Amino acid sequence: QVQLVESGGGLVQPGGSLKLSCAASVSIFSVNAMGWYRQAPGKQRELVASITSGGSTNYADSVKGRFTISRDNAENTVYLQMNSLKPEDTAVYYCNARRVLNYYWGQGTQVTVSS
Fold it and tell me: What 8-state DSSP symbol labels residue 105?
């Protein structure tokens, strides 16, 4: 089992920044990949960014150049730095971990971008 705990969400004005954190209960060396997904009201959950155990990253087109995913292996934590936030970034953000054929999810953290 892998438990994931997200933090860092909140209310921010358009153009602002937030940094999300996802702390894993296991060494993230044992995890094949970790990622951030988001789900806005009435929409499907979508991949925002992911990072493999080797450090390869992948981003949704809508966040490229604005969001950065990173990992701290010593802290077993993955981060999502979000800059130049837009109202359309408003959603619940979920951390995800894939280990072998199993997928694990955090409880989600709300991000609201509004003036």
Answer: E
